[in-house]
Design a protein that fits this description.
Layout: E1 2-4, H1 7-12, H2 14-27, H3 42-46, H4 50-64, E2 68-71, H5 74-82, E3 88-91, H6 92-101, E4 113-116, H7 130-137, E5 141-142, H8 161-164, H9 166-182, E6 187-190, H10 193-199, E7 205-208, H11 209-216
Parallel strand pairs: 1-2, 2-3, 4-5, 4-6, 6-7
């Protein structure tokens, strides 16, 4: 299995890739990473640089073909699954759900209340809703926000909005954080490094799904 970390987890949110590799090692998953990993092309596609994205996809396809690809990022997952051809792709939430249900990963459950943010790319774009929720509920109590699943609010980071219109991205993040705070939870879990980056704030602890498992799933066992 090729663990494709993605730009955000590789460069900005490195604790996510570290937590992911920790969990993979604990479960005995045979995987490798690319020392010279390149962008999947998602940002180029979403911001209209189609020719450049096509060239990037072509280069990556030559490297990826014949391998099962694991992604940390919801955007990478959507791009590799839908915009490339013939790739076998799985998101970390799906793999973790399988590893837990087959007994390859075991966590101590507690009474912690946690809320969950459906990222656009993983949720309504790819219909991955249940797996991350099942993973969270293997460790803690899931308390849902007002807008969830297909009706989840966007975090504001995608589609180039955070780069081109940071004030809009900030307001969208504030709206989502407000919904999270209404649940009474102190922890917000997301399956996307990009979402985590934009949702980080002073009032709630925002964690990637992998970071949440490492921190609250009995770290001594990991």
């Amino acid at each position: 299995m090729l663990y494709f970390r993605g730009c955000t987890a590789r460069e900005k949110q490195t604790d996510i890739s570290k937590a992911t590799e920790m969990l993979l090692n604990k479960a005995g998953v045979d995987y490798h990473i690319l020392k010279d990993e390149k962008c999947c092309g998602s940002v180029l596609l979403r911001t209209g640089f189609i020719d450049e994205a096509s060239e990037q996809i072509k280069k990556n396809t030559d490297i990826f073909k014949g391998q099962k690809i694991l992604t940390s990022c919801a955007g990478c997952y959507k791009t590799l699954k839908d915009d490339y051809e013939g790739l076998d792709v799985i998101h970390i939430s799906q793999l973790l759900d399988d590893l837990i249900k087959t007994g390859k990963l075991n966590f101590s459950r507690n009474d912690l209340d946690v809320t969950y943010h459906d990222s656009c790319h993983l949720g309504r774009h790819c219909n991955v809703f249940d797996e991350p929720r099942d993973v969270i509920e293997s460790v803690a109590n899931l308390v849902e926000m007002e807008n969830i699943r297909e009706n989840s609010l966007c975090c504001g980071a995608g589609g180039g909005v955070k780069s081109a219109y940071p004030e809009i991205a900030g307001e969208m993040a504030k709206a989502r954080i407000a919904q999270a705070k209404e649940t009474g939870c102190e922890i917000l879990v997301t399956p996307c490094p990009f979402c985590k980056l934009n949702l980080e704030n002073d009032d709630l602890e925002v964690l990637d799904l992998t970071e949440f498992l490492v921190e609250y799933g009995d770290i001594d066992e990991i």
